Amino acid sequence: MITILLFARMEEEVGSSKIEANVSGKTIADLKSWMQATYSLEKELTQCMTAINEEFATDADVIKENDVVAFIPPVSGG
Amino acid sequence: MIQLTNDPIDIQAVVNQVTDRNCGAIATFIGTVRELTNGKKTIRLEYHAYESMAIKLLKKISQEVQDNWPDTNVAITHRLGMLEISEVAIVIAISSPHREAAYQANAYAMERIKEMVPIWKKEHWDDGSKWIGDQLERVAYKEGKPQ
């Protein structure tokens, strides 16, 4: 299992800040497709950054068992 | 020093963190909650963060500043939670031997924060609430991560 963290608008759309999924061995791009199919988040997913274990990741990066993947919508600190 | 806090920011305390007898300049940036944005009235702002990663990236930015402008000291405190109009959301204090580096480094740090630190503000407008993306709405993260 992996843990997926959601923030801001994505957290509200899904209704949860943390979900678990059985997607280890797949890529971030695969995970995005799964999220899109499961939660209808198309626009949000194309705009967000992704992090694996608090390091920015790309669509090609592969997710391992027990990883924490965070979807990071456009940030607006400051 | 890097800090996220739910309490009001003590600006002087942030400045004190970078006071250095070999520095003749301290540049401070104070970000506050603005009421009007393009004619829309904000009632209050709510800041949320992916805290552990935000701290990590603020430390990285702090290191970038010190790599680019040697002999600087950096302190950044960002407020989280609900803020009223004119309250302080962020304080960046940077000291350096001479003023030019402090000015430049401070502007650099703020730009980097706006690019990549996972902190979000939710605007509570008088006509409803909305999460703000990047404020210029021009970032699409085509590569899936910041530059």
UniProtKB/TrEMBL annotation, chain A:
Belongs to the MoaD family. It comes from the Bacteria. Keywords: Nucleotide-binding. PANTHER family: MOLYBDOPTERIN SYNTHASE SULFUR CARRIER SUBUNIT. This is Molybdopterin synthase sulfur carrier subunit. The keyword Thylakoid does not apply. It comes from Shouchella xiaoxiensis. CDD domains: Ubl_MoaD. The lineage of its organism: Bacteria, Bacillati, Bacillota, Bacilli, Bacillales.
From TrEMBL, chain B:
Keywords: Transferase. CDD domains: MoaE. InterPro entries: MoaE_sf, Mopterin_biosynth_MoaE. SUPFAM superfamilies: Molybdopterin synthase subunit MoaE (SSF54690). GO terms for molecular function: molybdopterin synthase activity. Its EC number is 2.8.1.12. Transmembrane segments: none annotated. PANTHER family: MOLYBDOPTERIN SYNTHASE RELATED. This is Molybdopterin synthase catalytic subunit. The lineage of its organism: Bacteria, Bacillati, Bacillota, Bacilli, Bacillales.
